[in-house]
Each structure stands twice: as structure tokens, then as C-alpha cells.
Amino acid sequence: MATANQLKQLAERSRKVANAIVKQDIPPIERNLEQIEKQSRKLADKVIKPGEEPERKAPYFLANIGIDGDRLSQEVKSINVLGAFEPREILPDTDVEKFIEHKHQQTIDNIIKDGHTQTINDYNAYFDRCLINDWDRTKRKVFEELGQHIPTSTTSNSDLFSTPGNSRSIFQTPLKGIPSGNFPGSSTPRSAYVTAGERTVSFRSESTSQLSQRHLIYFDVVSKLNNCRLSMLEYGVINEFTNAAKKLGVDYVKKLVQCWQSLVSIVGENNVIEGRFTIHPLKERHYAKAYMAPSSSPENKGLYKTLLNGAKRYLEESYRAYSLEYVNSFRNEALLGGQPSVSNTARAMLRAIHRPNGGISINNLQMVENIPIWGHIYILLRQGYYQDALQVAQGYKSNFSRQDQTFITYFTKFINNNNSLPLDDRQKLVTEIKQWPPLPVHLYDPYKCLLYQIIAQMEELPQRLPTDSISPTFEDFMWLHLMCVREMDIESETVSDILSLERFQKKVRDLGPTHFNHYGKDPMQYFRVLLLTLQFEKAIYYLYHEYTEDAVHFAISLAYYGLLRVPESAEAMALIIDDEESRPKLNFNTIICQYVRKLANDKAPSKAFQYLILLYLYGNLQTDSGRYQIELCHFYVRQLVYDTEAFSELVGDVRSREGQIKKYMSLMFIDDEQEFNEIIVYTLARQCVEDGKFKAAQSLYELTENYEEIILLLNKMLAEFIWVSIQGVAMQPESAQELNPQEIKKVLQDYKKRQIEMRLSEDRIKTCEKLLGLVDFIELYKKQDYENALNVIQNIDLFPFEEDVSVIKHKAAAIEGFDGQLKNCVAELLLITMRCIYSRYQQLKEQTSYLSPSPMGKYLDDTIVLRQKAKCLISFVGYLKSRLFISF
Known about the structure:
Blueprint: H1 2-21, H2 33-45, H3 57-63, H4 69-78, H5 96-146, E1 167-168, H6 213-230, H7 237-246, H8 253-267, E2 272-273, E3 276-277, H9 288-292, H10 298-329, H11 331-334, H12 342-353, E4 367-368, E5 371-372, H13 373-382, H14 386-395, H15 407-416, H16 423-434, H17 446-456, H18 474-484, H19 501-511, H20 513-516, H21 523-532, H22 536-544, H23 548-560, E6 576-577, E7 585-586, H24 588-601, H25 605-612, H26 624-644, H27 647-651, H28 660-663, H29 673-690, H30 694-703, H31 707-727, H32 733-738, H33 741-753, H34 762-782, H35 786-796, H36 805-816, H37 820-848, H38 853-879
Antiparallel strand pairs: 1-6, 2-3, 4-5, 6-7
Helix pairs in contact: 6-7, 7-8, 8-10, 8-21, 10-12, 10-18, 12-13, 13-14, 13-17, 14-15, 17-18, 21-22, 22-23, 23-24, 24-25, 25-26, 26-29, 29-30, 30-31, 31-34, 31-37, 34-35, 35-37, 36-38, 37-38
Keywords: Membrane, mRNA transport, Nuclear pore complex, Nucleus, Protein transport, Translocation, Transport
InterPro entries: Nucleoporin_int_Nup93/Nic96 (IPR007231)
GO cellular component, one term: nuclear pore
């Protein structure tokens, strides 16, 4: 019974397996035993039995397409494959030598297989890297050529500063390196940090527009800056840009000047008259070391504290000017008087603010003689008169409530400790503020709340009391928060307890441009906010999308004092690099190169050069990145000269002698004239030669009196002309102007007249004369003057025309030493010479048929000479080592 159940279960499981295998959409085929037997017999009948011949359809079919099936079948049968499958010899356990030999063979096989696999993997990885690098270089080149896209809407920038970790490109991508064959690294004693294929930037001009007045106003400051750098003098660049901005005829000039003035105060560029410091000068790269130091270092913290004090000073000075204007607007209500003191001016300001008609209500203010006492202290503090505010507060002590009697103690310590309470006192004050009794909002004095918030340096009071009515402007907002910014003591304070600079910067970025810009009506406002919060890189990045030209000059000012961080790799694609692990870095190279391209397009190469040499601010000889920057700047300068073709203006010529670049070579880390020639002149000349700009190369070599290179260049030009003439290539007008043998002949004659040829290699002079002779030879051949053409080629002494084996060998050896271009022409020159001989021979034959016997003898002698010359040339070809494919 149990066995029957097991069989049933097994049958059921087999059905389930069959159902799982068979697709549901195909119905199963059900046959009985009779049908199965019938189908089996049909299959068996189709099998070829021993001794039967198969049908011969296949050979006939193969024969139709030219294949012998029987022969192929015999060949396959004749193959003995038994050796390929012979069993391996079993090695005895005691045969150590055979075992080692076997292992050795296996190891070799494994090494070959692993090496093959590794080679394939390495190749694929290398191919991927090359593909990615080529694509990056192509993107850089395209984006550099197309330039920067400037969005028309200011709201598109609202998310640029909201979160860290983004690396955005101005192209939604360098200005990368040098394409193969374009400006190879100079052969200076220093190591080359710019390698072939690293950067491509073009300053080629296609525009005919002129510089605007705005360009010229800014350029005047940049030119003076570079001249002061050249003379090693300090220059108040921000003050000068401020004065220049006042002359600009733009609708936002007032806001622009305010931004420049804020930067003057932040940097501390004081006591400047016409660009010169009267006292306490700031040197070039004055803040660079401290600004680039780690954020935890004492020098970096000290610098940020100094810069923050400058930002607060600007806001306080601005408020003083605003106070005077406001008081003057309400003279009758303010009651200022004839000779107002600082305290009386603050009183007048309060009277104007809380005037009866149209002023702010005084219902919740503590008043003494119709003056809000807390407001009096606050206005003096807001104007930057800290000591005066302290004196006034001490005078009001008797009017303070019992709860506020400790205010004078805390306020005195706050003022005397450089606007910061000691840690213990701050913690006590914060505790007291948190214990204030809960009162209705309208019973709190807003001036008093602001003063306590400032002294305690809290981002906001726990009670969250409204104070907007007495501090309505964005300047009030900025000053209040900058006063509350406190350096965190990691051991004693918590992040949530204080308002750090980093926290305030993030708050500003989270609010975004639209919060400060009045929905796009004032784009400069947010830029000033970023400056005041010391976010210089983000400020330039933001302004670059709004007012590019102004952003460039703000960047120059900050870079001059070392207040811009740049990527360590000068080839970074993004305009700003901002990740969570490091502070933001701005691509100063790209900003300047984009602006230089615009100047180059406006036909102002000398002005463009003034901007390019500012890139050397980030160059130095102590670090790899600094040396790389120098090499990259050299490349940019050469590219500017080459693309604008301003050789005489920038490099110089024989007449004017010195160009702009040579004047500023000390700023370019070029020590002497020899290094200048090698880095700038010779590299440019070689590039001109490669690209067929022979006249430009000649003028560059003449500038350095390198006549040996000039002769080599003339020889190359002549060889090029000969090759073009032989090939019958139609030259463009520019090329025809470059390759003019008559001008080359004049240059050679001039050198002979000035006895310059005495300083040149005799072999090169002879080569030049031979090439000039070859030019005449080809011209005569084209004119079908075969007789004179043969005389010229014989006088050149290039090919042998005498049956002297030693002479033939000597001429053949000389051919092997020719330059590549001329050497490529030898075969064609031989062909032309043979055609001249043949054509002249045919002319003589025709002439002899019409002459009397006496002149005929002379012509017969000439034909014999021509045959001998032809034989000499044939023998000469046999001695040539080069493979010259000549078909006569």
C-alpha cells in the first residue's frame, strides 16, 4: 500500500515537472503507443544502412559554385587526428626532473596567458583614458572658442550658492594646453610643466569692433598697476578702481561704487592718494600666505578677524553718512543745532526716526528727556562710536531697571575686549537672557533687545522678538550679524550656541540672490553681501554671470592682494570648484583669458597683454604648481602674439627694437635677454615656420640677430617653393606672398652688402644659392627653354654629368645629407632634368634634318653629349641609397 502511494506521488511530481518545462502557450502533443511506433519506423528508414551509397545531391549542388566535394571529403579523411588526442605520459612519482620540467612548461604557459589577458586589460584601460582625455581637450577647446554664456535672468543664479559640493563651469564645462605641434614647451633650463596636448586657448580675432570708453577707463588702472609692479612700488589698486568706476556711464554706477568702497574698507587699503600709499602700504600678495593657510591656523583666523572688522567699519561709516542725510531731511524734527557732537547727532537721529508725524511709535521705548535711552546707545554703536556709546550708557545707569544694572558691566567688558565678551561672562549673560520673564511682545524695547543680542553675540534671542522696525535695511541686517559673529572655542562652546562666520555665510547663501536683490532689480546687492561675508570667490563667480567686465576687475584686485584661492591644477575646467572638504577656488586663469580674448577681438593686443601678465601673480619658482603656472602663462603670451599677429607691437622688430613683452619680462619670471629669446622669440619663430608664416619667423630671428637660423629658414622657404612648383599646386595669395624667391634673393644680396655673410656658414650660403638656381631651372623648364635650363642645372653642380665613378659617388652621398623637403624633390628634379635632356635631344634631331652637312656635325656632337649626360644620371640613380621611384 505504501509503495503504491509513493508511485502515485512520483507520477504527480513528474507531471508537475513536465508542466513547468513545457511553455503554456504551446499545446502538448499527445500520442498513443501505435502512433509513436509508426513515427519511429519512419525515422529508421531515413538512416543510411551499411553498404548503401548516399544520395549525390550535395556534390552536384557544390559543383555549381565551383567546389569539388569529393576531393574535399578525401582530404578530410586523410587527416590523422589521433596524435592530437594521445594521452599524456604518466610521470612516475620518483621522476623529479620530469616533474620539474612539466611544472616549468605549465608556468610558462600560465605566464603567457596571464600576460595576454593583462595586455588586453591594460590596452582597454589606456584606450579609455585616451578617449576621455581627448574628449576633455576637445570640450575645452570648443568652450574656450565659444566663450562664456551669460544668462539673461538673474533668478537663474538663485541656486548657485545654496549647497556645497557643486563644481560648476562657466561653460558648463580650461583657457587645455598645447595641441600636438602647437607651441611645444620652450627649451629653457627649467623643467617644462606645460606638455604637448595639455591646453588649447585661442585669441584669434574675427571682429572689427573698437574698444569702448569703459574698457579704456579700466585699462588705465591695470596699466598703472603693472608699471608699479615693474618698479616694485605699492599701488592702491582698489581705490583707483573706485575712482575709475565713478567715471563709468552705467545705470548701476552708484551700487558699483558702493561695492568698491566696501572692498576698500574690508582690505584696509587706506591712506591712498592717486594710487600711492602715504602710510602703511599694502604690498603685492600682502594677504596671500595667511589667506591660503589652513582655516585652523592662527594666521588665517587673525586675517579673517581683520577683514571682518573692515567689513563692519564700512557698514558703520556708511551709516554715519546716512544719518547725516536723514537728519538733514527732517531738520525741524531733529533739532540738531549748530555744532553737534557725536552724542547730539545720535539724539537728532532718534528724534527724526521717532518724529510725531510719520515716525516710529515710542510706546514701548524707555524714554529720558524724550530720547529712547537704549536707542541712544544703539545709534552710537551702529555708527561705530564704541567708546561714546559706553560713556552714554554709563550716564544712563541710574535710569536702568534693577534687572539691567549688570548691563554696564557686560557692555564695558565687551567694548574693552575688542567687541567680544570673555567666555565666562558671555555664558552668564546668555543664561540671564534665557531667564527673562515672559512678557507680551509689545512691552519689550527693541533697542534694548538688539544691544543684548550684540553683547551676547547670539544669532537671535530666545524670545524671538521683532526688531525689523528699527533696523529695516539690509545694511542693518549685515552689521547686526557681523557684530554677532564669534570665533568658536571648540573646547568650551557648542556650534548651536554661537554664530560662526561659516554659519553666517551659509545662511546668506541659503537666502540666495532673490532675497537681497529685490527680485532682480538690484543684482549688485547680493554681490556686496558676499563681499561683506568674505566669500570672495563666490562673489566673483556670481557677478561674472551678471556684469562680466566688473567681475574681472574685482577679481584682479583680490588676486593682487592674495585674497583669491585658485585650483592647484591650472587646467581645472570649472570656473569655481566648491566641494565639502575644502574652501571654494576660483579659476582666475579662465576669467582673465576670456576677457583677453574679447580685447584681442577688439584689435587691442597690447592691452590684452597687460591683462595676461596678471596671471603671473600666481606663479612662483618654489612649487610645482607655481612653476606650472609660469609655463602656462608663457604659452598664453605666445598664443596671444601668434593669434593677433602683433609681432612688432608685442615682441618687437628691427626698427622699434623692443616690444611690450620685453619691457615686462621681469614680471614674467624671465631673467635675461637670452632666456627671453628662448622662451618667447625662438618658440614663436619655430611655430611660424611650422605653419608657413615665414616672414614673421624671419623678422623674429632678425630681432635677435640670429642670422644662421634665418639662412636655414630661407633654405626651407626655397625648398618649399621648389616642391610647390614641381607639384603644380596652386598657391593662395598669402602663401605666394610668403614664398617669394625674388625677395629671398634680395635678402641674400643685402647680407652680402652688409658683410653679414661673413658670420654665416659657407655651406648654408652655398645651399641657398643652389636653391635659388633650382628655382631658375624650374622656371626655364616651364618656359620650355631646355638648353638654358640644362646650363643652369649643370652650373648648380647638383647632379653629375661626367662619367667619373668617384664624382658620381660623391654627388650621391651629398644627396643623402639634404633636408627632408629638398630631398623629397630630388626624384622630380631628376625627372625634369631627364625631360630637358630628352626634349633638347629631340630639338637637335629635328634641326639636323634641315641643315647642311657642316653645321650638322656640331649638332651631332651635342646629341652625343646629351646621351652621355643621360647615362651619367642613370648611373647616379643607381648609387642613391634613398628609394627614389623614378619612371623615365
